Amino acid sequence: MKKRVFAVVFVLVLLFAASFASAFWPFDWVKKIFGGQVTGRVVDNLPFKDSANCIDTDGGIFSYMKGNVSYVLNNINRKAVDVCSGTGYGYGGEYLREYYCNNSALKSTNIFCKDGCENGKCVNTTLMKCTDSDNGKNYTLKGNVIKDNIAKTDFCDGNVLKEYYCDNQTNKLGAIRNISYNCSRFGYSGCENGACVKKEIIESNIHNINISIATLKDEYKIGEKIELTDPPDGDVVINNNLAVSDEMDLSTISLNKQKEELKIQGYIIEFEEKPLVVRDTELKKEMKDNQEYIKKSFVFNPKRISKQFFAITKPEQVKKEVSKQEIILKSEHEKLKEIISQELDVPLSDVNAGITAQAVSENGESEKDILVLGEWDSVFNGIALNISAEDAEKVSKIFGVKSISPNYEVHALLQDSVPLIGANKVWEMDKDLGQCAQSGKECLTGKNITIAIIDTGVDYTHGDLGGTIYKKVGKAIIGGGTLKYGILYGDKIVFHRVIGGNFDIYLYDLSTNEEKQITNDKNPQVLATGYGGFSGDKIVWTDGRNYINNSNENDDIYLYEVFNREQKQITSNSEAQRYPSVYGDKIVWMDFRDNKEDIYLYDLSTNEEKQITNNTNTTIKLGGVPKLVGSKIFASCRRENSFLTANICVYDLLTNEARQITDHEENKYHVEPGFVISEDKIVWVGFDQVNRSYDIYLYDLSVNLERKITYTKSVESSPSISGDKIVWADNRNGNFDIYLYDLSTNEEKQITCDPFNQYAPYIYNNKIIWNDEGEKKIYIFDISKDKGCNSNSNFPFNSKVIAGGYDFVNDDDDPMDDNGHGTHVAATAAGNGVLKGVAPDAKIVAYKVLDSNGGGYQDTIISAINKAVDPNGDGDFSDKVDIISMSFGGPGDPDDSLSTAADNAVYAGVVAVVAAGNSGPSEGTIGSPGTARKAITVGATDKQGNIAGFSSRGPVRWFDEDENENYLMKPDIVAPGFSICAAQSSQDILNSQGLDLHCIDDKHIAISGTSMATPHVAGVVALIKQKHSDWSPDDIKNVLKSTAVDIKESIEKQGYGRIDAEKVVRLNHSMSIANIETISLFRTFNRIDINGTAQGKGFGSYEVYYYFEEQKNRELICRGEKEVNNGFLCSFNFERLSEGEYYLILEVYDGDGVLLSKAFSIFYLDKSLYKGWPKKLRVFADSLTPALEDIDSDGAQEIIIHTTVSEYVLYGNGSFFKGWPTSKHSPSFFTNAQITSAAIADINNDGKLEVITNLRDYYAYRNVPSDYSYCFNVYTSEGKIYPGWPLRCLENSYSNAQAVPLIVSDLDGDHSLEIIGGSSPQEEGVLRIHVLKNDGTSFMEWPYAFDKTYSRDAFYYNPGITVRDIDNDDKKEVIALIRNISWSSFLFMWDYNGSLREGYPLEMPSLEYEAWGSPIIADINNDGLLEFSVFRDTGNCYYNNGMLTYFNLNGTELEWWPKSFTDQFIANSVAISDIDNDGKLESIFGTVGSCDNRLNYSVHVLRSDNTIQEGWPKKVIGGVWSEASVGDIDGDGSSEILVSTDQGYVYAFDKFGNILTGFPKRMDGPSKSGVAIGDIDGDDRVDIVSATNEGRVYVWGPFGEYRKENMQWPQFQHDAQHTGCYGCDENLTFITPVTPVEPPKHRPQSKITNDGNKNIWGNLNIYMQRNVKGQWADVEGKLVVDYQVNIPAKGLVKLDAIFNPRGFSLNEAGNYRVYAVFEYSTGSKKEASWEFSVV
Predict the structure, then answer these.
(1) Strand runs labelled E in 224-320
(2) β-pair partners for 592
(3) What is d(CA 206, CA 201) in angstroms, rounded to the nearest whole number?
(4) Would the pTM of this model clear 0.85, i.e. be above it?
(5) Where are the beta strands (DSSP E) in 1245-1358?
């Protein structure tokens, strides 16, 4: 008995040891001891590795590439680098020490380099061009690639081909590249002998394959075996060898929030594999857990544990594993990029090379560009590509792709705030909370903490951020004596030098570095400033050697010829001649003889002198410093009575005529002496006498245009120009520095930043010279090689902004701020100058991701986060920054790419502080990356502690890929963000908007925004990090929230309150963490899941409570006694809860029940939102308006949605109508496309309804020829394009039908419907009004094309169209209100046949500005006549002060009208209804805020006499951009008014203006769609439908009894035909629909047949799927997985023989189908399915 017990115990111990060892010990060791097979991920075919323990980057012994070998010795990672002689090996300068791997060990050898050794490799003087025997990426031919001494051969690794090829893009001689190509995935049978091979298959026989499938019965019981039908026996061959399963979890495209007028630059693709940061964090946690487990679990002596065991629990092992993971990720990246490239049939360009790849069509034209915008593996694993939405959808289906999101543009969000949060008191403390001034210990000022400012860059020259950066640039070449200005021409410099009081002229030769003295005289020789003194080989100057009695009144002109070294005197008289200029063989100067000032000329070819001007006898006086260029003399000039030379004139030597070039006002402007000319451009310093300002000006002679170059309050001097580049001296920073302006790019650049004056610059081509006053030397600078003082690679030691930053906008290492936003943010966080930031001794790393306008894209931000976490990109995150501060935002949610990157940075140990956004005061307006779960999201207060109106509110609400509703509480905390005074960038544009924002002095500005609040928190985090370096980001976030000051606002506004720096720093230990992260609502199960964290020191238990809105009677949900870290806390059933807003409380207690910490969150329970809704549609527009119509005549209306991408028809349960959605013939992907509602009608009298849409279509869509575009389309009820459609509106034009509502109506009374719409021109073309028949041809005399008087500019905007029988002749007229860009409006009226009515068009002079949208025609005043509505803008902003009015059809305005609205604008047509049932019509509409008051939103009801209906208007949250809807939704017989807003709310008001119970409803994004009222499920109860701009459709109900007659204006333009006709109730279906009779169900045989003459092989997959809410969902995945079958010629394969033996049954009742897919080797498919039920 004892033996058996011992045996059992021994077995248990052995099993335990095996299990334990497999978890902790190396795989090989476990296999040796315990046997068996150990699985794990292995990366094969890495040509540069000998094993996992030795990796050589240059592939072995290769002398022409510097490599390094990473290897492991004694469990320590080591590295050896190839080196040349001179490093201690004793070999001559011709030897290389080459390291390589051999049997997992490091080896080395000495190699003789015949041409020498440099930089760790042999010099190769005989470079060989790369050649490829199979001519590139040829997967079906084995090839050899040779370059230099390298030869590579294509080889197979299983079914993966390693294909080598030459890359000739990045190197003229080519470089060897390789890709991994999975042959089996792309239609080949496998890889053999270095090439993909395909089994014999004849494409022409593929169509002979057929597949069918059916179950034996249509109804099964639960648990009953399900079997397929049995085909008759035949010549059946079945291949029973299962292929390796390569099942793919195909992700659907995940498109995130897209706000109004958002810009998108391609898409960000996230890969399935975890990024390195996450893997690193997991491994460290695993290491820590392992160490704890060892301590707790082993009872024997720890000394006996093997060293090998301990090695796997050490940091070195983690680092090694991360290095391996990095190799794996990079390999996977390359594979996925190649697969993406193959899927899109376009090569991807190299992200580092920055070269755009192009796909070329058969005609040689490039079809599209695909550029890799970014590629990451640290904080985010994926890439960004500039692909279209269509391509994004293709990529989303590739195995290995996790999600795709648009690469949205993001924007920057805009002394006493530091004391407000107590930061100044913290500066006086040391780490022990004593007074640091007394203790002598280090004060808490953020010292040694680094904050990364990810923003517009940082002006590191500002005094608050380290002061002016003094950095010598250029090269001193000339010194000695006192140097004056010089002139650079070619490779020569002529200059002044003063020695011992003598002024002399010298010449310096740059080619020889030799200097020559030209003059040697005690009297001065003076060069003329600017161009003219040195040209060709001639130098001219003013010489005083002939002074009489030391008088300077007889200066003469001298000439020196460089080539023949001869000097010549040009003038010799007793008067002064000055400012000479030479060009060719002519010299001009200003001559002062006879007490006059005139220009003279000397001709060297004739030795003759000539007087050019006679200023005594002319009105215009030419003077100053003349310049000679060709046959023209340029000089400053003035009029006779002017005391200033205000202009520049030119004198033509050929015509002897002078003319004035510039046109400045006399005596108010002065052209300073020394203007310069280069080719056809003149540059000078102009002085504005009125504003007292100096600036640089340019006049372009080629276009006769003047422009101002600088706009500063500083002094500019000594301009010089060469080509497109201008330089000058500028004292804007207190002393003169050299600046450059590039005319080709319109960019300014500071060249010098020196404490001493730099003056007299001169530019020639790419070289600049200037005089350095401090060193008294002439410097030269090459702008093609040096970046100037703005490079951050050489910051001084004491600079606050340290090296390591980067400019991701301009792709260089100079993150200089050219906007001002980032500088203000950096100074608020860590400034230390005139004003101190929160952490004055913290260091700043600047990452510029936003341009000068404050905009940028998410891919650059992800790159910056990546660099902040891994600055040198080596995969080791120990050099990460401490904090990242991000004050910008865009659309998104917690699962988007940007939020994911921010969260992963936190996992790496970086504290992420992010702005909430400036979209308040509405709820749910937090932007990404403020939506990141782990980030600290910051809202803003004013200085009194009140929430700022602009501060975005929470909660964050979003829907995951399964359409489950989720909530995240944000913001976390708030901080001062109103009128914050901080540093102003020297290139600031924030202060140039017409307002003076300066505070303290002219180097600081006061601005507001959550951007300003965010760095307050980042600074406080730096103070915390200095005191508690061991606190994790979660610890810091928790203590910030726990110590925040409650400012008595709701949690969606304040989070946990205002930050308190002093209180949080006084904490000596971290607190237990309580955090509610995500609240998920599962409506199908009436369940709410709560996820978060409850853990920490002293933890005993946690409890979760809820309470309803403001009722504080809380109820316990759950209690837990185990710690939870970012996991599931508990769930509860919400079925018994009432609808409304709920608050959650998480409380963490110690073992004695003492409260340690608490957390809050919020969610909204909308019980009237139908299950299965909302539903996300693909859409790239800013409005999609639902239409409701009963398409299948079953008594329930379907929902029809018209978008830029697809047309959708949905049942009430959210499933798609059969045949829908469709793909547009030519979709547009423009993000600002305005899409109106589809029209639905029976246009061909067949008893079935058609769907009619307009298209916003551009030629740029690459599958559509560029010489035409489409305007309208018609679909059958089955989703097929109707014959004759889509319609091309206009040949050879970019015409489109964008936002013009379509109308369907019977114009001529023949019981056949016509389609009415408009198309508007883009660029060339004319506006047209179309009336179309059902086959797409024009009706009668239509279209009406406006003549050239109204074409192009005059009628660029969209028309508003309506139809109505005006004269009661049973034929309808077409009425349109047209506006042009001159803000004039015209009323047009046509007869039904297209002829323009006599007397029309009528100009509407009373419409002072512009009219909008479609007019609504009705008898508004009960006078028996029809009137039409007009709403318009009355201000200088396109939505400013709005106005509504009515006109008679003769163009006269109705009595009592118009009605104007201050600071409001009407954005769509009015709805007409008799809301109070008094027999008189009311006008109902909503407004949006004006340019001056964005928050002024209201809903209005006006009576027919223009008086306001009692109880109205009513304020709403958000602008109302769509029509109101009117109908009785609660069944009380009285109509309600419904609107949606751009803040995501749906309101329902009764006739008195009271909000109905349960409203407003909330959506997860802005809405311009309006609300449709109907009955979508046929239960005779009211349902309402709305949608967000991002394409999420909501359906609420059921409400009251649905009665059609009580729906006065139930949807857009009244009805699904868009008649806009109140009370018309037209019958638009003329044949009674016939319900089709379904034929008897045929039960096919389950088989695959091949009628061809060749065997065909492929893979078979069989799925079992269940109908869930109208969609088929897999049950337990695939039942038959990648089953390889070979179908014989003229034979078949029996599916029942494969399926039935599996004995599959179902354990839940429902509707099911069995679904079979056969995939050929070519990638083509055949599919079949059969439906049945389980009861």
Answers:
(1) 264-271
(2) none
(3) 8
(4) no
(5) 1250-1254, 1268-1275, 1287-1291, 1303-1305, 1314-1319, 1328-1332, 1344-1345
